[in-house]
């Protein structure tokens, strides 16, 4: 990773329940060079619509990267030809190359996975009462991680 905003990494942290029983799926997006967390949005599901909305907002705020590196889970990849999903086709149309790590090799996105470990420890133990309150925790974490270097 040779320059800011060239390669972004993205992943869902994995679902968990808030104290009211609602599932939360944190979508995280990181600049691969600077390790700046561009976004962490708690979604109600890992749907195309929600994921595309988050990326659209990030593109508007930070511009378009050249590459987005993800794992092989939905909505990033499918079992179709070349594993292209509707999301990755959208990225291609925007001029972004979707780069998939090898299946079952999360270490190929190791920096991102390490950030996830810290995110989980700092924001979900215990989980917040609601998804809205959980998002506030994610927002505080982003501020501390990006601006205060506390992790």
Automatic annotation (TrEMBL):
Return the SUPFAM superfamilies for the record: Ribonuclease H-like
A GO BP term here is: DNA integration
Q: Name one GO molecular function term.
A: nucleic acid binding
Q: Which residues form the signal peptide?
A: none
Positions of the Integrase catalytic domain: 1-151
One of this protein's Pfam families, by short name?
rve
Name of this protein: Integrase catalytic domain-containing protein
